[in-house]
Amino acid sequence: MTEAEFIAALRRMPLHPGAHGLMDDSAVIDAGPLVVTTDTLVEGVHFLPQDPPGDVAWKLVATNLSDLAAKGALVEGVLLNYPLGDSAWDHAFLDGLSLALARFDARLIGGDTVSLRGPRVLTLTAFGREAAAPVRSGARAGDALWVTGTIGDAGLGLAIAMGGTGPEALRDAYRRPQPRLTEGRALAPVVHAMMDVSDGLLIDAARMAQASGLAVTIDLDAVRLSPAARALGGEDRAARLAAATAGDDYELLFALPPDVTPPVAATRVGRFDAGAGLSLFDTAGPIPLPPRLGFEHAAPR
Amino acid sequence: MTEAEFIAALRRMPLHPGAHGLMDDSAVIDAGPLVVTTDTLVEGVHFLPQDPPGDVAWKLVATNLSDLAAKGALVEGVLLNYPLGDSAWDHAFLDGLSLALARFDARLIGGDTVSLRGPRVLTLTAFGREAAAPVRSGARAGDALWVTGTIGDAGLGLAIAMGGTGPEALRDAYRRPQPRLTEGRALAPVVHAMMDVSDGLLIDAARMAQASGLAVTIDLDAVRLSPAARALGGEDRAARLAAATAGDDYELLFALPPDVTPPVAATRVGRFDAGAGLSLFDTAGPIPLPPRLGFEHAAPR
Protein backbone atom coordinates (compact mmCIF):
# COMPACT_ATOMS: atom_id res chain seq x y z
CA MET A 1 0.00 0.00 0.00
CA THR A 2 1.49 3.37 -0.91
CA GLU A 3 1.63 6.25 1.50
CA ALA A 4 -0.92 8.18 -0.59
CA GLU A 5 -3.35 5.23 -0.52
CA PHE A 6 -2.87 4.82 3.22
CA ILE A 7 -3.50 8.50 3.93
CA ALA A 8 -6.54 8.46 1.62
CA ALA A 9 -7.90 5.57 3.70
CA LEU A 10 -7.20 7.46 6.91
CA ARG A 11 -9.18 10.43 5.52
CA ARG A 12 -12.26 8.20 5.37
CA MET A 13 -12.08 7.65 9.16
CA PRO A 14 -13.61 10.02 11.69
CA LEU A 15 -11.26 13.04 11.62
CA HIS A 16 -10.70 15.57 14.36
CA PRO A 17 -11.66 19.09 13.19
CA GLY A 18 -8.13 20.27 14.03
CA ALA A 19 -6.67 17.69 11.63
CA HIS A 20 -7.29 19.98 8.61
CA GLY A 21 -8.33 16.88 6.66
CA LEU A 22 -4.80 15.47 7.22
CA MET A 23 -3.57 18.06 4.68
CA ASP A 24 -1.04 19.77 6.95
CA ASP A 25 2.08 18.94 8.97
CA SER A 26 0.42 19.80 12.29
CA ALA A 27 -2.98 19.71 13.93
CA VAL A 28 -4.61 22.09 16.37
CA ILE A 29 -6.42 20.85 19.48
CA ASP A 30 -8.55 23.38 21.33
CA ALA A 31 -10.28 21.40 24.05
CA GLY A 32 -9.10 22.82 27.36
CA PRO A 33 -6.59 20.97 29.52
CA LEU A 34 -5.56 17.75 27.83
CA VAL A 35 -4.52 14.37 29.19
CA VAL A 36 -1.81 12.95 26.92
CA THR A 37 -0.50 9.40 26.78
CA THR A 38 1.54 7.43 24.25
CA ASP A 39 2.31 3.74 23.79
CA THR A 40 4.51 1.94 21.32
CA LEU A 41 3.77 -1.67 20.35
CA VAL A 42 6.60 -3.75 18.87
CA GLU A 43 5.99 -6.88 16.80
CA GLY A 44 7.36 -9.88 18.67
CA VAL A 45 7.37 -7.99 21.97
CA HIS A 46 3.91 -6.48 22.54
CA PHE A 47 2.08 -8.46 19.89
CA LEU A 48 2.70 -11.70 18.03
CA PRO A 49 3.61 -11.75 14.33
CA GLN A 50 0.64 -14.06 13.79
CA ASP A 51 -1.85 -11.77 15.58
CA PRO A 52 -4.50 -10.52 13.13
CA PRO A 53 -3.53 -6.97 12.01
CA GLY A 54 -7.00 -5.68 12.83
CA ASP A 55 -6.56 -6.89 16.41
CA VAL A 56 -3.16 -5.16 16.58
CA ALA A 57 -4.86 -1.91 15.57
CA TRP A 58 -7.55 -2.48 18.18
CA LYS A 59 -4.96 -3.19 20.87
CA LEU A 60 -2.91 -0.12 19.95
CA VAL A 61 -5.98 2.09 20.39
CA ALA A 62 -7.29 0.24 23.45
CA THR A 63 -4.05 0.28 25.45
CA ASN A 64 -3.75 4.04 25.02
CA LEU A 65 -7.41 4.71 25.79
CA SER A 66 -7.02 2.58 28.92
CA ASP A 67 -4.56 5.22 30.18
CA LEU A 68 -7.17 7.90 29.44
CA ALA A 69 -9.78 5.80 31.27
CA ALA A 70 -7.56 5.83 34.37
CA LYS A 71 -7.76 9.64 34.27
CA GLY A 72 -11.54 9.71 33.80
CA ALA A 73 -11.09 11.53 30.48
CA LEU A 74 -13.36 11.82 27.47
CA VAL A 75 -11.53 10.78 24.30
CA GLU A 76 -10.48 13.79 22.22
CA GLY A 77 -8.52 11.95 19.51
CA VAL A 78 -5.37 10.08 18.50
CA LEU A 79 -2.15 10.46 16.51
CA LEU A 80 -0.84 7.40 14.62
CA ASN A 81 2.79 6.66 13.67
CA TYR A 82 2.63 3.79 11.21
CA PRO A 83 5.19 1.71 9.27
CA LEU A 84 3.81 0.89 5.81
CA GLY A 85 4.20 -2.82 5.12
CA ASP A 86 2.54 -5.26 2.78
CA SER A 87 -0.83 -4.19 1.47
CA ALA A 88 -2.90 -7.00 2.96
CA TRP A 89 -1.56 -6.24 6.44
CA ASP A 90 -2.10 -2.51 5.98
CA HIS A 91 -5.70 -2.99 4.80
CA ALA A 92 -6.56 -5.31 7.68
CA PHE A 93 -4.91 -2.90 10.12
CA LEU A 94 -7.00 -0.02 8.74
CA ASP A 95 -10.19 -2.07 9.15
CA GLY A 96 -9.36 -2.72 12.80
CA LEU A 97 -8.40 0.91 13.36
CA SER A 98 -11.67 2.10 11.86
CA LEU A 99 -13.58 -0.31 14.10
CA ALA A 100 -11.75 0.76 17.24
CA LEU A 101 -12.07 4.49 16.53
CA ALA A 102 -15.82 4.11 15.93
CA ARG A 103 -16.27 1.90 19.00
CA PHE A 104 -14.55 4.37 21.35
CA ASP A 105 -15.76 7.56 19.66
CA ALA A 106 -12.15 8.57 18.93
CA ARG A 107 -11.14 10.82 16.04
CA LEU A 108 -7.90 10.84 14.10
CA ILE A 109 -5.84 14.00 14.65
CA GLY A 110 -2.78 13.21 12.53
CA GLY A 111 0.37 11.13 12.53
CA ASP A 112 3.24 10.00 10.37
CA THR A 113 3.90 7.06 8.03
CA VAL A 114 7.33 5.60 7.34
CA SER A 115 8.93 2.72 5.46
CA LEU A 116 10.54 0.14 7.68
CA ARG A 117 12.44 -3.14 7.37
CA GLY A 118 12.41 -5.25 10.47
CA PRO A 119 9.74 -5.80 13.13
CA ARG A 120 6.77 -3.45 12.95
CA VAL A 121 6.89 -0.59 15.45
CA LEU A 122 3.57 1.16 15.97
CA THR A 123 3.00 4.24 18.09
CA LEU A 124 -0.27 5.82 19.08
CA THR A 125 -0.67 8.98 21.12
CA ALA A 126 -4.06 9.63 22.69
CA PHE A 127 -5.58 12.86 23.96
CA GLY A 128 -8.36 13.14 26.53
CA ARG A 129 -10.34 16.10 27.82
CA GLU A 130 -12.41 17.09 30.85
CA ALA A 131 -10.53 14.69 33.10
CA ALA A 132 -10.59 14.69 36.88
CA ALA A 133 -7.13 13.17 36.32
CA PRO A 134 -6.41 11.34 39.59
CA VAL A 135 -2.76 10.32 39.96
CA ARG A 136 -1.39 6.99 41.10
CA SER A 137 0.37 8.59 44.07
CA GLY A 138 -2.71 9.73 46.00
CA ALA A 139 -3.58 6.60 48.02
CA ARG A 140 -3.83 7.16 51.80
CA ALA A 141 -3.22 4.83 54.74
CA GLY A 142 -6.41 2.94 55.47
CA ASP A 143 -7.71 3.17 51.88
CA ALA A 144 -9.11 0.05 50.32
CA LEU A 145 -7.67 -1.22 47.02
CA TRP A 146 -10.25 -2.07 44.37
CA VAL A 147 -10.10 -3.39 40.84
CA THR A 148 -12.74 -3.58 38.10
CA GLY A 149 -13.61 -6.75 36.18
CA THR A 150 -11.70 -10.03 36.25
CA ILE A 151 -7.94 -10.56 36.34
CA GLY A 152 -5.77 -12.96 34.35
CA ASP A 153 -7.94 -13.56 31.29
CA ALA A 154 -5.46 -11.89 28.93
CA GLY A 155 -2.57 -13.87 30.42
CA LEU A 156 -4.33 -17.15 29.63
CA GLY A 157 -5.35 -15.67 26.28
CA LEU A 158 -1.73 -14.99 25.37
CA ALA A 159 -0.91 -18.68 25.89
CA ILE A 160 -3.83 -19.57 23.61
CA ALA A 161 -2.75 -17.03 20.97
CA MET A 162 0.70 -18.66 21.05
CA GLY A 163 -0.81 -22.03 20.17
CA GLY A 164 -2.20 -23.30 23.45
CA THR A 165 -5.64 -24.79 23.93
CA GLY A 166 -8.51 -22.74 25.31
CA PRO A 167 -11.63 -20.77 24.50
CA GLU A 168 -11.67 -17.91 21.98
CA ALA A 169 -13.13 -15.59 24.59
CA LEU A 170 -9.87 -15.72 26.57
CA ARG A 171 -7.73 -15.34 23.46
CA ASP A 172 -9.79 -12.29 22.55
CA ALA A 173 -9.30 -10.83 26.03
CA TYR A 174 -5.60 -10.73 25.07
CA ARG A 175 -6.11 -9.52 21.50
CA ARG A 176 -8.95 -7.05 21.97
CA PRO A 177 -8.83 -5.54 25.45
CA GLN A 178 -11.67 -3.22 26.48
CA PRO A 179 -10.56 0.05 28.04
CA ARG A 180 -12.77 0.96 31.00
CA LEU A 181 -13.65 4.45 29.78
CA THR A 182 -17.16 4.56 31.28
CA GLU A 183 -16.01 3.21 34.64
CA GLY A 184 -13.04 5.58 34.70
CA ARG A 185 -15.30 8.54 34.07
CA ALA A 186 -17.46 7.61 37.10
CA LEU A 187 -14.53 6.72 39.35
CA ALA A 188 -12.07 9.54 38.65
CA PRO A 189 -13.84 12.23 40.72
CA VAL A 190 -14.11 10.01 43.83
CA VAL A 191 -10.91 7.92 43.99
CA HIS A 192 -7.75 8.88 45.88
CA ALA A 193 -5.53 7.20 43.27
CA MET A 194 -6.14 5.30 40.03
CA MET A 195 -4.20 3.56 37.24
CA ASP A 196 -4.85 0.82 34.74
CA VAL A 197 -3.59 -2.74 35.22
CA SER A 198 -1.34 -3.13 32.19
CA ASP A 199 1.64 -5.08 33.53
CA GLY A 200 -0.04 -7.26 36.18
CA LEU A 201 -2.15 -6.69 39.28
CA LEU A 202 0.70 -7.26 41.74
CA ILE A 203 3.30 -5.08 40.05
CA ASP A 204 0.83 -2.29 39.37
CA ALA A 205 -0.51 -2.36 42.94
CA ALA A 206 3.08 -2.26 44.21
CA ARG A 207 3.72 0.76 41.95
CA MET A 208 0.68 2.57 43.31
CA ALA A 209 1.80 1.87 46.88
CA GLN A 210 5.35 2.99 46.17
CA ALA A 211 4.19 6.19 44.44
CA SER A 212 1.91 6.89 47.41
CA GLY A 213 4.62 6.12 50.00
CA LEU A 214 2.59 3.30 51.52
CA ALA A 215 2.47 -0.46 52.02
CA VAL A 216 -0.21 -2.49 50.28
CA THR A 217 -1.64 -5.88 51.27
CA ILE A 218 -3.59 -7.99 48.79
CA ASP A 219 -5.99 -10.83 49.58
CA LEU A 220 -5.34 -13.21 46.70
CA ASP A 221 -8.62 -15.07 47.33
CA ALA A 222 -10.53 -11.85 46.72
CA VAL A 223 -9.12 -11.44 43.21
CA ARG A 224 -11.96 -12.23 40.81
CA LEU A 225 -11.27 -14.79 38.10
CA SER A 226 -13.67 -15.23 35.17
CA PRO A 227 -15.61 -18.50 34.82
CA ALA A 228 -13.65 -19.22 31.62
CA ALA A 229 -10.33 -18.66 33.43
CA ARG A 230 -11.38 -20.90 36.33
CA ALA A 231 -12.50 -23.61 33.90
CA LEU A 232 -9.20 -23.50 32.02
CA GLY A 233 -6.66 -22.82 34.73
CA GLY A 234 -8.39 -23.61 38.02
CA GLU A 235 -8.49 -21.26 40.97
CA ASP A 236 -5.92 -22.58 43.41
CA ARG A 237 -3.13 -20.41 44.76
CA ALA A 238 -0.87 -21.09 41.76
CA ALA A 239 -3.62 -20.16 39.30
CA ARG A 240 -4.40 -17.00 41.23
CA LEU A 241 -0.73 -16.02 41.41
CA ALA A 242 -0.44 -16.57 37.65
CA ALA A 243 -3.48 -14.35 37.06
CA ALA A 244 -2.25 -11.61 39.40
CA THR A 245 1.17 -11.47 37.71
CA ALA A 246 -0.05 -11.64 34.08
CA GLY A 247 -0.31 -8.41 32.14
CA ASP A 248 -2.68 -6.89 29.58
CA ASP A 249 -5.81 -6.88 31.75
CA TYR A 250 -6.50 -3.14 31.27
CA GLU A 251 -8.81 -3.11 34.27
CA LEU A 252 -8.83 -0.08 36.59
CA LEU A 253 -7.04 -0.27 39.93
CA PHE A 254 -8.02 2.36 42.47
CA ALA A 255 -7.85 3.48 46.09
CA LEU A 256 -10.96 4.52 48.03
CA PRO A 257 -11.57 5.36 51.69
CA PRO A 258 -12.62 2.15 53.48
CA ASP A 259 -16.22 3.29 54.01
CA VAL A 260 -16.86 4.31 50.38
CA THR A 261 -18.53 2.00 47.89
CA PRO A 262 -17.39 2.56 44.30
CA PRO A 263 -20.00 3.86 41.81
CA VAL A 264 -19.24 1.00 39.38
CA ALA A 265 -18.93 -2.78 39.66
CA ALA A 266 -15.55 -3.61 41.21
CA THR A 267 -13.90 -5.95 43.68
CA ARG A 268 -12.14 -5.01 46.90
CA VAL A 269 -8.83 -6.85 46.87
CA GLY A 270 -6.61 -5.16 49.44
CA ARG A 271 -5.73 -2.20 51.61
CA PHE A 272 -3.06 0.47 52.03
CA ASP A 273 -1.22 1.07 55.30
CA ALA A 274 1.70 3.08 56.55
CA GLY A 275 4.98 1.43 55.54
CA ALA A 276 6.32 0.16 52.27
CA GLY A 277 6.15 -2.88 50.02
CA LEU A 278 3.62 -5.45 48.90
CA SER A 279 2.25 -8.30 51.05
CA LEU A 280 0.08 -11.16 49.91
CA PHE A 281 -2.18 -13.54 51.81
CA ASP A 282 -5.05 -15.96 51.28
CA THR A 283 -7.17 -18.08 53.64
CA ALA A 284 -4.20 -20.40 54.16
CA GLY A 285 -2.06 -17.54 55.43
CA PRO A 286 0.73 -15.25 54.17
CA ILE A 287 2.09 -15.94 50.68
CA PRO A 288 5.76 -15.42 49.78
CA LEU A 289 6.05 -12.93 46.90
CA PRO A 290 6.66 -14.58 43.53
CA PRO A 291 10.02 -13.71 41.88
CA ARG A 292 8.19 -11.84 39.14
CA LEU A 293 5.32 -9.50 40.03
CA GLY A 294 4.37 -8.72 36.42
CA PHE A 295 5.66 -7.67 33.04
CA GLU A 296 8.53 -5.32 33.91
CA HIS A 297 9.37 -3.87 30.50
CA ALA A 298 5.99 -2.91 29.10
CA ALA A 299 4.62 0.60 28.96
CA PRO A 300 7.19 2.37 31.10
CA ARG A 301 7.10 6.13 31.29
CA MET B 1 21.06 0.76 29.49
CA THR B 2 18.04 -0.47 31.43
CA GLU B 3 14.67 1.16 31.19
CA ALA B 4 14.95 2.37 34.79
CA GLU B 5 18.36 3.96 34.10
CA PHE B 6 17.01 5.59 30.94
CA ILE B 7 13.97 7.04 32.71
CA ALA B 8 16.17 8.23 35.58
CA ALA B 9 18.28 10.09 33.01
CA LEU B 10 15.17 11.59 31.42
CA ARG B 11 14.10 12.85 34.86
CA ARG B 12 17.26 14.97 34.97
CA MET B 13 16.15 16.85 31.83
CA PRO B 14 13.84 19.85 31.89
CA LEU B 15 10.42 18.33 32.68
CA HIS B 16 7.02 19.76 31.86
CA PRO B 17 5.01 20.41 35.05
CA GLY B 18 2.24 18.15 33.72
CA ALA B 19 4.70 15.26 33.43
CA HIS B 20 4.27 14.40 37.16
CA GLY B 21 8.01 13.72 37.28
CA LEU B 22 7.48 10.94 34.70
CA MET B 23 5.86 8.91 37.50
CA ASP B 24 2.53 8.35 35.79
CA ASP B 25 1.10 6.80 32.61
CA SER B 26 -0.23 10.12 31.33
CA ALA B 27 0.61 13.80 31.43
CA VAL B 28 -1.65 16.85 31.60
CA ILE B 29 -1.10 19.86 29.35
CA ASP B 30 -3.03 23.00 30.26
CA ALA B 31 -1.78 25.65 27.85
CA GLY B 32 -4.75 26.71 25.74
CA PRO B 33 -5.13 25.59 22.14
CA LEU B 34 -2.23 23.33 21.18
CA VAL B 35 -0.43 22.74 17.90
CA VAL B 36 0.51 19.06 17.70
CA THR B 37 2.93 17.39 15.32
CA THR B 38 4.69 14.04 15.25
CA ASP B 39 7.58 12.61 13.25
CA THR B 40 9.12 9.18 13.18
CA LEU B 41 12.77 8.70 12.19
CA VAL B 42 13.89 5.27 10.99
CA GLU B 43 17.53 4.17 11.01
CA GLY B 44 18.67 3.64 7.45
CA VAL B 45 15.80 5.74 6.07
CA HIS B 46 15.79 9.10 7.85
CA PHE B 47 19.21 8.85 9.41
CA LEU B 48 22.35 6.85 8.74
CA PRO B 49 23.47 4.04 11.06
CA GLN B 50 26.83 5.84 11.36
CA ASP B 51 25.27 9.21 12.30
CA PRO B 52 26.32 10.19 15.83
CA PRO B 53 23.46 9.29 18.23
CA GLY B 54 23.50 12.79 19.72
CA ASP B 55 22.89 14.24 16.27
CA VAL B 56 20.01 11.80 15.73
CA ALA B 57 18.44 13.10 18.96
CA TRP B 58 18.99 16.67 17.80
CA LYS B 59 17.43 15.95 14.42
CA LEU B 60 14.44 14.19 15.98
CA VAL B 61 13.73 17.27 18.10
CA ALA B 62 14.57 19.77 15.36
CA THR B 63 12.39 18.23 12.64
CA ASN B 64 9.37 18.30 14.91
CA LEU B 65 10.04 21.82 16.18
CA SER B 66 10.37 22.92 12.55
CA ASP B 67 6.70 22.00 12.12
CA LEU B 68 5.87 24.10 15.17
CA ALA B 69 7.94 26.96 13.71
CA ALA B 70 5.77 26.86 10.58
CA LYS B 71 2.77 27.52 12.84
CA GLY B 72 4.46 30.37 14.72
CA ALA B 73 4.11 28.43 17.99
CA LEU B 74 5.99 28.65 21.25
CA VAL B 75 7.37 25.25 22.26
CA GLU B 76 5.28 23.67 25.03
CA GLY B 77 7.04 20.31 25.22
CA VAL B 78 7.67 16.90 23.67
CA LEU B 79 6.82 13.20 24.06
CA LEU B 80 9.53 10.64 23.23
CA ASN B 81 9.00 7.03 22.08
CA TYR B 82 12.40 5.37 22.35
CA PRO B 83 13.80 1.91 21.60
CA LEU B 84 16.42 0.98 24.21
CA GLY B 85 19.56 -0.25 22.51
CA ASP B 86 23.18 -0.54 23.53
CA SER B 87 24.24 1.64 26.42
CA ALA B 88 26.81 3.75 24.58
CA TRP B 89 24.26 4.70 21.92
CA ASP B 90 21.60 5.43 24.55
CA HIS B 91 23.95 7.65 26.58
CA ALA B 92 25.07 9.61 23.52
CA PHE B 93 21.45 9.97 22.43
CA LEU B 94 20.50 11.33 25.85
CA ASP B 95 23.33 13.86 25.69
CA GLY B 96 22.08 15.13 22.33
CA LEU B 97 18.49 15.17 23.56
CA SER B 98 19.46 17.19 26.59
CA LEU B 99 21.33 19.66 24.40
CA ALA B 100 18.45 20.07 21.96
CA LEU B 101 15.81 20.47 24.69
CA ALA B 102 17.90 23.14 26.39
CA ARG B 103 18.68 24.91 23.11
CA PHE B 104 15.02 25.16 22.08
CA ASP B 105 13.58 25.66 25.55
CA ALA B 106 11.56 22.46 25.23
CA ARG B 107 10.43 20.35 28.17
CA LEU B 108 9.84 16.63 28.32
CA ILE B 109 6.18 15.72 28.85
CA GLY B 110 6.39 11.92 28.76
CA GLY B 111 6.80 9.02 26.36
CA ASP B 112 7.39 5.30 26.18
CA THR B 113 10.44 3.05 25.99
CA VAL B 114 10.50 -0.36 24.31
CA SER B 115 12.94 -3.13 23.46
CA LEU B 116 13.52 -3.59 19.77
CA ARG B 117 15.54 -5.78 17.44
CA GLY B 118 16.06 -4.34 13.99
CA PRO B 119 16.53 -0.78 12.80
CA ARG B 120 15.91 1.90 15.41
CA VAL B 121 12.53 3.60 15.13
CA LEU B 122 12.27 6.86 17.04
CA THR B 123 9.14 8.95 17.43
CA LEU B 124 8.83 12.42 18.88
CA THR B 125 5.59 14.34 19.29
CA ALA B 126 5.84 18.08 19.85
CA PHE B 127 3.33 20.50 21.32
CA GLY B 128 3.23 24.23 20.69
CA ARG B 129 1.10 27.00 22.15
CA GLU B 130 -0.05 30.52 21.31
CA ALA B 131 0.24 29.87 17.60
CA ALA B 132 -1.25 32.02 14.85
CA ALA B 133 -1.20 28.65 13.03
CA PRO B 134 -1.29 29.60 9.35
CA VAL B 135 -2.12 26.67 7.07
CA ARG B 136 -0.41 25.69 3.83
CA SER B 137 -3.64 26.13 1.86
CA GLY B 138 -4.03 29.89 2.30
CA ALA B 139 -1.92 31.28 -0.57
CA ARG B 140 -3.78 33.66 -2.92
CA ALA B 141 -3.30 34.46 -6.61
CA GLY B 142 -0.72 37.21 -6.92
CA ASP B 143 1.05 36.29 -3.66
CA ALA B 144 4.83 36.13 -3.69
CA LEU B 145 6.56 32.93 -2.55
CA TRP B 146 9.39 33.45 -0.06
CA VAL B 147 11.81 31.18 1.73
CA THR B 148 14.14 31.79 4.68
CA GLY B 149 17.86 30.98 4.67
CA THR B 150 19.72 28.99 2.05
CA ILE B 151 18.58 25.89 0.19
CA GLY B 152 20.45 22.66 -0.54
CA ASP B 153 23.03 22.65 2.24
CA ALA B 154 21.58 19.55 3.89
CA GLY B 155 21.42 17.73 0.56
CA LEU B 156 25.15 18.27 0.04
CA GLY B 157 25.68 17.44 3.70
CA LEU B 158 23.98 14.06 3.31
CA ALA B 159 26.46 13.15 0.55
CA ILE B 160 29.31 14.15 2.89
CA ALA B 161 27.83 12.16 5.79
CA MET B 162 27.69 9.14 3.47
CA GLY B 163 31.44 9.40 2.84
CA GLY B 164 31.74 12.19 0.28
CA THR B 165 34.19 15.06 0.47
CA GLY B 166 33.17 18.46 1.76
CA PRO B 167 33.17 20.84 4.68
CA GLU B 168 31.84 19.93 8.13
CA ALA B 169 29.51 22.91 8.05
CA LEU B 170 27.49 21.31 5.25
CA ARG B 171 27.52 17.89 6.88
CA ASP B 172 26.22 19.51 10.06
CA ALA B 173 23.44 21.26 8.14
CA TYR B 174 22.22 17.72 7.42
CA ARG B 175 22.85 16.33 10.89
CA ARG B 176 21.82 19.26 13.05
CA PRO B 177 19.15 21.31 11.30
CA GLN B 178 18.02 24.55 12.96
CA PRO B 179 14.26 24.98 13.21
CA ARG B 180 13.26 28.57 12.40
CA LEU B 181 11.25 29.11 15.58
CA THR B 182 12.00 32.82 15.94
CA GLU B 183 11.31 33.55 12.28
CA GLY B 184 8.11 31.49 12.35
CA ARG B 185 6.87 33.43 15.36
CA ALA B 186 7.32 36.73 13.49
CA LEU B 187 5.94 35.45 10.18
CA ALA B 188 2.89 33.46 11.30
CA PRO B 189 0.60 36.44 11.95
CA VAL B 190 1.29 38.07 8.56
CA VAL B 191 1.63 35.22 6.02
CA HIS B 192 -1.22 33.83 3.91
CA ALA B 193 0.28 30.32 4.00
CA MET B 194 3.36 28.74 5.56
CA MET B 195 5.09 25.35 5.86
CA ASP B 196 8.60 24.10 6.44
CA VAL B 197 10.82 22.81 3.63
CA SER B 198 11.41 19.25 4.74
CA ASP B 199 11.24 17.27 1.50
CA GLY B 200 12.66 19.80 -0.99
CA LEU B 201 11.84 23.33 -2.12
CA LEU B 202 10.15 22.29 -5.37
CA ILE B 203 7.97 19.52 -3.95
CA ASP B 204 6.98 21.58 -0.92
CA ALA B 205 6.16 24.65 -3.04
CA ALA B 206 4.09 22.43 -5.35
CA ARG B 207 2.25 21.08 -2.28
CA MET B 208 1.48 24.60 -1.05
CA ALA B 209 0.18 25.56 -4.51
CA GLN B 210 -1.93 22.40 -4.76
CA ALA B 211 -3.38 22.86 -1.26
CA SER B 212 -4.20 26.49 -2.15
CA GLY B 213 -5.72 25.59 -5.55
CA LEU B 214 -3.18 27.70 -7.42
CA ALA B 215 -0.23 27.52 -9.81
CA VAL B 216 3.23 28.45 -8.58
CA THR B 217 6.20 29.68 -10.63
CA ILE B 218 9.73 29.59 -9.23
CA ASP B 219 12.73 31.59 -10.42
CA LEU B 220 15.56 29.11 -9.90
CA ASP B 221 18.19 31.88 -10.10
CA ALA B 222 16.57 33.57 -7.10
CA VAL B 223 17.06 30.52 -4.85
CA ARG B 224 19.82 31.40 -2.41
CA LEU B 225 22.73 28.96 -2.12
CA SER B 226 25.23 29.26 0.72
CA PRO B 227 28.86 30.17 -0.04
CA ALA B 228 29.90 26.68 1.11
CA ALA B 229 27.37 25.07 -1.21
CA ARG B 230 28.46 27.20 -4.17
CA ALA B 231 32.10 26.37 -3.44
CA LEU B 232 31.39 22.63 -3.32
CA GLY B 233 28.71 22.17 -5.93
CA GLY B 234 28.78 25.30 -8.09
CA GLU B 235 25.73 27.36 -8.92
CA ASP B 236 24.76 26.41 -12.46
CA ARG B 237 21.30 25.19 -13.34
CA ALA B 238 22.12 21.58 -12.43
CA ALA B 239 23.48 22.60 -9.02
CA ARG B 240 20.43 24.76 -8.36
CA LEU B 241 18.06 21.99 -9.41
CA ALA B 242 19.88 19.59 -7.08
CA ALA B 243 19.56 22.08 -4.22
CA ALA B 244 15.87 22.76 -4.89
CA THR B 245 15.01 19.06 -4.92
CA ALA B 246 17.10 18.01 -1.89
CA GLY B 247 15.33 17.62 1.43
CA ASP B 248 16.09 18.37 5.08
CA ASP B 249 16.51 22.14 4.75
CA TYR B 250 13.93 22.98 7.46
CA GLU B 251 13.65 26.53 6.18
CA LEU B 252 10.25 28.26 6.17
CA LEU B 253 8.35 28.63 2.91
CA PHE B 254 5.58 31.21 2.91
CA ALA B 255 3.16 33.25 0.81
CA LEU B 256 2.82 37.02 1.19
CA PRO B 257 0.93 39.68 -0.76
CA PRO B 258 3.29 41.07 -3.46
CA ASP B 259 3.63 44.47 -1.77
CA VAL B 260 4.49 43.13 1.70
CA THR B 261 8.09 42.79 2.90
CA PRO B 262 8.57 39.94 5.39
CA PRO B 263 9.57 40.88 8.95
CA VAL B 264 12.58 38.52 8.86
CA ALA B 265 15.43 37.86 6.43
CA ALA B 266 14.11 35.82 3.51
CA THR B 267 14.35 35.50 -0.26
CA ARG B 268 11.56 35.98 -2.78
CA VAL B 269 11.71 32.97 -5.10
CA GLY B 270 8.39 32.85 -6.92
CA ARG B 271 4.73 33.75 -7.22
CA PHE B 272 1.28 32.20 -7.12
CA ASP B 273 -1.26 32.59 -9.91
CA ALA B 274 -4.62 31.18 -10.88
CA GLY B 275 -4.23 27.71 -12.34
CA ALA B 276 -2.44 24.59 -11.19
CA GLY B 277 1.02 23.04 -11.15
CA LEU B 278 4.61 24.12 -10.76
CA SER B 279 6.65 26.02 -13.37
CA LEU B 280 10.36 26.75 -13.26
CA PHE B 281 12.50 29.31 -15.07
CA ASP B 282 15.87 31.02 -14.90
CA THR B 283 17.54 33.73 -16.96
CA ALA B 284 18.03 31.24 -19.80
CA GLY B 285 14.28 30.64 -19.99
CA PRO B 286 11.76 27.98 -18.93
CA ILE B 287 13.14 24.83 -17.28
CA PRO B 288 11.56 21.39 -17.78
CA LEU B 289 10.52 19.94 -14.41
CA PRO B 290 12.96 17.33 -13.11
CA PRO B 291 11.52 13.81 -12.74
CA ARG B 292 11.83 14.03 -8.96
CA LEU B 293 10.75 17.23 -7.17
CA GLY B 294 11.95 16.13 -3.74
CA PHE B 295 11.89 13.34 -1.19
CA GLU B 296 8.43 11.83 -1.65
CA HIS B 297 8.26 9.43 1.28
CA ALA B 298 9.41 11.55 4.20
CA ALA B 299 7.19 13.05 6.82
CA PRO B 300 3.83 12.46 5.16
CA ARG B 301 0.72 13.27 7.10
From TrEMBL, chains A, B:
Catalysis performed (reactions): thiamine phosphate + ATP = thiamine diphosphate + ADP
Name of the gene encoding the protein in the UniProt record: thiL
Keyword Metal-binding listed: yes
Pfam families tied to this protein: AIRS, AIRS_C
Keyword terms, alphabetized: ATP-binding, Kinase, Magnesium, Metal-binding, Nucleotide-binding, Thiamine biosynthesis, Transferase
Protein name: Thiamine-monophosphate kinase
GO molecular function, one term: ATP binding
Enzyme Commission code: 2.7.4.16
Additional remarks: Reaction mechanism of ThiL seems to utilize a direct, inline transfer of the gamma-phosphate of ATP to TMP rather than a phosphorylated enzyme intermediate.
Annotated PurM-like C-terminal domain residues: 140-228
NCBIfam families attached to this UniProt entry: thiL (TIGR01379)
Signal sequence region: none
Function: Catalyzes the ATP-dependent phosphorylation of thiamine-monophosphate (TMP) to form thiamine-pyrophosphate (TPP), the active form of vitamin B1.
Family, as annotated: Belongs to the thiamine-monophosphate kinase family.
Binding site for Mg(2+) 5: 199
Binding site for Mg(2+) 2: 39, 67
Keyword Disulfide bond attached: no
Residues reported to bind substrate: 46, 248, 295
